[in-house]
Every structure is written in C-alpha cells, then in structure tokens.
Specification:
alpha/beta, 10 helices, TIM Barrel, 8-stranded parallel β-barrel, 10 strands
Length: 277
C-alpha cells in the first residue's frame, strides 16, 4: 500500500457516515475516522439494517471506517450516575463497532481538575480495563490516544498527554483488543517532542498516527500543514525508519484541507528520503 493510501481523514461530525463513505470514495481516501455522538450519526441511530447498508457501501468503495469517541466525555469520571453513564457510552461504541466492521475505536483517558489527579487516573484506568474486557467479547479494538497539553494555569487538564501519564494506562493494559493511537502533533507541544515520545513508545502497539500542524511547545491548534513548525518529513523518516507501516489520519481544518494535504505530506516524506510507494 502506498503512503498516500495510508493517510486517511478524520471526518468527525462533518458528514453523515453514509455520505462520508461516498466522499471518501470520490476522493480516493481509503480510511476515515468518524464520531457517533450527535445528529444523524448518534450511536443510538444505528440499527442492524443501517449497519448492514453501511458495511456494504464501505466494502463496495474500498473505504475502511474507524470510530472516534468524544474527548469531552470524561473517561476519568468517578461520580455516581455519571460514572455509570460513561461506562454505557463506551459499551455503545464497542457494540456498534463490529456491526459497522470498524477497524478501531479511538478512546481517551479523560481529564482531571488539578486537585484530584490520582483519583481520576485510577478511575480512568479501571474504566478502560472494563472497556477492554467488553471489547474482547465483541471483537472490537480500542486505541488509546495521547491528548494535548493545556495551559499551566488551566484548572482542567487532559490525562495521558505526557508519556509518563500515557504509560500509566498502556503499561497496565495488555490485550489484543487494546492498542495505541499516537497523535504526533500533541507530542510536538511538549519538551520531549516527537523524537522523545517515539523513543519510549512501543511502536508495535501503535495502529494509527494522527497528524496536524502546530507550534513547538505551544498549545492545541490543529493547523493545516505548513501553517505551523511541525517537521512532517522528519516525522515520517523517524516512524517509517523504525518500521511503522500503519495508518496516518489527518485531523485539521475542512475536509478539503485534509484531502489536499495528503499529497503535501507524501511530498514531505519523499523529500525526507522515505519510500512512498
């Protein structure tokens, strides 16, 4: 498979899933991430008949579908009632994934409110362990994403944004139903950078690398490639040189921005000496 074919698009909430598959086929995009939280894509709206139709459309068009949960849902929740709701939310994604033949489900570690970090981390780890057991029973694959740093003065901070925090979860959970999604631009926001993250990352567990531009040691922006200072050529050379052959997913701007950037990224990789196919 060429590098271009390995670079997909995060549709998010931009299109109804059926329309997203048609859009991907027209633009020769081989995989898409999509969120099932609202509008016509709410997870509760996928009955067996609709899922069969979507599987048929995806297969006919050579498009692979992946799911992406909402990072605003706090996987580190520990309050009564809300805690049970988060479990139910993850179960719903897990149960619909095989019906859609979804390649994976990106999940998160949640967030904390500064004064309760240990409690939140433990709650999130335990919830992810429960979710992984459920995924094992349903034949789904969960990918835990490293999230972005927030300003130091912020009260709320995402968990698993540093390598130390991310390791807390993936060192504790080993299962064929659990792997990793590496958001390279999030690593660029921290002092270790992409090189520092990759040096510690069990690359054999990474199934997706997510891409956007940003500014070194800055904050979350999700810029179109070329608008920040992320060195995409160096990133491709590093990952591909270490044997990574998984998916990349563009996550920035409009659908047109993400589609146009696929060729730009391949050019950067080629210029860095990467075999692009």
């Amino acid at each position: 498979m060429t590098l271009l074919d390995r670079i997909g698009v995060d549709v998010g909430r931009k299109l109804k899933l059926e329309d997203a598959i048609e859009w991907a086929a027209r633009n020769q995009v081989r995989h898409i991430d999509i969120q099932l939280d609202t509008g016509p894509n709410a997870v509760t709206l996928f009955d067996d008949a609709r899922c069969r139709d979507i599987r048929a459309r995806a297969t006919a068009n050579g498009v692979h579908v992946a799911l992406h949960t909402l990072s605003a849902v706090n996987v580190a929740e520990y309050s009564p009632f809300l805690s049970e709701a988060v479990d139910a939310y993850l179960r719903a994604y897990i149960e619909v994934a095989p019906k859609l033949d979804a390649a994976w489900i990106v999940v998160h570690a949640g967030y904390h409110f500064t004064a309760d970090v240990p409690e939140r981390m433990a709650a999130g780890r335990d919830r992810l362990q429960r979710a992984v057991r459920h995924a094992e029973r349903h034949g789904a694959l969960l990918l835990l994403e490293n999230l972005n740093r927030e300003p130091e003065a912020a009260e709320v901070h995402y968990l698993a944004h540093t390598m130390q925090e991310w390791r807390y979860y993936f060192d504790a959970i080993h299962s064929p139903a659990f792997a990793l999604s590496f958001t390279a631009n999030h690593a660029h926001l921290l002092p270790p950078g992409v090189e520092g993250f990759v040096a510690e990352l069990p690359l054999d567990r990474v199934k997706e690398v997510r891409l956007a531009d940003c500014r070194r040691n800055g904050y979350e922006e999700h810029l179109v490639p070329g608008e920040g200072d992320f060195d995409f050529g160096a990133m491709f050379a590093l990952l591909e040189g270490k044997g990574y052959r998984g998916a990349y997913t563009n996550a920035f701007g409009s659908l047109e921005d993400m589609q146009a950037a696929r060729g730009y990224l391949v050019d950067k990789a080629r210029a860095a000496g990467v075999a692009v196919g």
